[in-house]
């Protein structure tokens, strides 16, 4: 009995390896690419992913009729460069190699040639504004905003962000080990010990993202890079989603083979979708193949929704057990989605040998260390690109009717600023989560009861770095207002409240109606400005007439002058 089981298991494993090798020789194995959209547009990802894969791994992006399209509002990008401190510019970086290329731009290996970090190697992601569609501009800004606030050992770090008239620049860690897909392609499949290590580091990264209220939505080997020591670094946040509190997202996006069933059927998804993709990644690393993959995209999605998982018998019982609880089609039953969150995954027998504290401190030796002879060695990147002469071609400015204002895009990581400057930047990077601000109840205008007692809070109508703006309806009068919900752990809004109370009677300054406070948030109820943001109007028109522009500027100047007369700087 034992011998029969052994040879059956060995036979299964050999057949899987042979199939993997055969598919690679036939050209059907997934190849690195910048995943195609339905429209065929190539999307530039981080550090060297540019070749198209002939398989069905495509990024499917929701169209204008997407059910949550209205919730994807303009993202306010806060300015992090202190006055008097030089912003980063393209001429501060020496181009060394091309790491990847797509229709939107390129990724270069660069060396900083000025400043405190002179000589440091970075990956420079360059995007052409004119070729970015509206949703891609939004996602570029979303990625920038997320990377500003994320500081984690297993997530790529943003060091600078800046722009020219025609281009956007993101300066990121250079992960010289390449991506996990490259290693997986060369080794066919990993041992369970290798998989356990990579999944454990990835689980900590995903949990950190979730703790910030972000759904990642694009877990796959291409988005997992290896540093010089072999530790992982999660990258590419262009498809990530900030959920609306306890509500769900509905965009149909991601790479098809890694999509959770709830994304495929468009019934709404949340953080649990990432744990399904986590399971797909685990299956692929253990077996060398994908759990659900049809002849085309439609067949693949049908399998994700209905097909029974074929579990290779050569996998250990612990591996099979973890895969089964990750591949629960009901997201509420999926491991990681319960009340204990990440602890459900940490406690699973598959991870029994992992010391999670040591892992977070990078005290566990990675199973593979990239063999690099020099700091600027790009051996693990595609020679099709690294052999090219690095040249940052001039960017064409976006056309007037497609112009996108990337407000406050510039960024310098606080660790690169003087200590005093870094302390004033108001960013989460390199700092522990700040304690909640002192209560506002010392202001007589703050009401002691709950905002929900008097107002019915409705849909999100705007989102900033520290706050969310919602439509709300006064329960007694049924009059509509806007309520700005400010996270107390990120911003002290006492000065803002005081200014609005003092000067809100001005014709062109929004009127503050009520202020509420609870343990986590401050709620500023204000008049609802039905005309929307000036930015939206600028976007919707090809040009402003001089009469319109002068009227707008006259109002802005007179209002700012009024504030200056009373000692208030808007900033």
UniProtKB/TrEMBL annotation:
Enzyme class at the top of the EC tree: transferase
Detail which positions bind ATP: 99-107, 125, 461-469, 484
Entry protein name: non-specific serine/threonine protein kinase
Q: Keywords for this entry?
A: ATP-binding, Kinase, Nucleotide-binding, Phosphoprotein, Repeat, Serine/threonine-protein kinase, Transferase
- AGC-kinase C-terminal domain location is 352-421
- According to the entry, every stretch annotated as the Protein kinase domain falls at 93-351, 455-571
Source organism of the structure: Homalodisca liturata
User: Which E.C. number(s) belong to this protein?
Assistant: 2.7.11.1
Please give the cofactor(s) recorded in the UniProt entry for this protein.
Answer: Mg(2+)
Member of which family?
A: Belongs to the protein kinase superfamily. AGC Ser/Thr protein kinase family. S6 kinase subfamily.
Signal peptide stretch: none
**GO molecular function per UniProt:** ATP binding; magnesium ion binding; protein serine/threonine kinase activity
Q: Where is this region: Disordered?
A: 28-54
List the InterPro entries hit by this protein, alphabetically. Answer: AGC-kinase_C, Kinase-like_dom_sf, Pkinase_C, Prot_kinase_dom, Protein_kinase_ATP_BS, Ribosomal_S6_kinase_II, RSK_N, Ser/Thr_kinase_AS
Regions that span the bilayer: none
Biological process annotations from GO = intracellular signal transduction
User: What does the record give as the reaction this protein catalyses?
Assistant: L-seryl-[protein] + ATP = O-phospho-L-seryl-[protein] + ADP + H(+); L-threonyl-[protein] + ATP = O-phospho-L-threonyl-[protein] + ADP + H(+)
